[in-house]
Specification:
Blueprint lengths: L5 H21 L6 H8 L3 H7 L3 H26 L6 H14 L1 H7 L3 H4 L6 H5 L6 H10 L9 H17 L12 H15 L8 H30 L5
């Protein structure tokens, strides 16, 4: 993740794992730095050699979750070009997010778990590859999205659809709740009907043009997240 000695990197990973476990178990508001140090099996002083504040530590935990999502998405794109189709791409993100409880809390801005971190603009802004309008323009140029509607209207609809599928599950009860694979199928259906053009890019175009472009966006997103992590960790002494 960062350029550190093996020992320092190992301690940082140990601390981050402990912090993640406590965050899932107790929620941000109930955890102290002393709790994290004890759970990680290190001294509190050691903790403060890596992060100056509790906020910086737990932001690093959540940024690490985001980095894992973007990395996994990149791997799926590399393995299967059809994953670049918007209906597949968003379904894959929904699946990856739901596999990781902290990532899900981040994407749904779960304030009961994340406390004030849920309102941090940094974490909200890093959840997307680009601004919705800019992203839609790129997807339109790649032939992944229809072009017969104003991009501003399309971007708002796109954001609303993704937010709805991300946030609706906890609001449903009883028979209205469905399995994740049904949620993914429903998302794919809505995206196909609403956003994708009638004629999609062929396999060659997906492989030679679309996938490299999307992977480049993911590279930029991952680099930005790594920079945010570096900014939160204290330099080695």
């Amino acid at each position: 993740m960062l350029e550190m000695t093996d020992a320092r990197q190992g301690r940082a990973a140990q601390i981050l794992a402990a912090a993640a476990e406590l965050l899932l178990r107790h929620g941000y508001a109930r955890i102290t730095m002393e709790d994290v140090a004890q759970h990680a099996g290190v001294g509190t002083g050691t903790l403060y050699l890596h992060w100056r504040t509790k906020e910086a530590l737990f932001e690093t935990v959540l940024l690490g979750e985001l980095l894992a999502i973007w990395h996994a998405l990149d791997q799926h794109l590399a393995a299967d070009s059809s994953e670049a189709l918007l209906s597949r791409l968003l379904g894959r993100i929904l699946h990856l997010v739901n596999e990781r409880p902290l990532a899900k809390a981040l994407f749904t801005r779960d304030s009961s778990l994340l406390g004030k971190l849920a309102q941090r603009r940094l974490l909200q802004n890093t959840q997307t590859l680009a601004r919705a309008t800019d992203l839609l323009r790129q997807l339109r140029a790649l032939g992944l999205v229809r072009t017969d509607v104003a991009v501003t209207v399309q971007a708002h609809a796109f954001s609303a659809v993704w937010a709805g599928f991300s946030l609706i599950d906890p609001l449903l009860t009883g028979d209205d709740r469905v399995a994740l694979d049904v949620q993914i199928d429903a998302l794919a259906y809505v995206v196909r009907q609403t956003f994708e053009p009638t004629i999609l890019p062929d396999a060659t175009t997906l492989h030679t043009l679309v996938v490299p472009t999307l992977r480049s966006l993911l590279d930029e997103a991952q680099a930005a997240v790594k920079q945010h992590i570096r900014e939160r960790m204290l330099p080695q002494r």
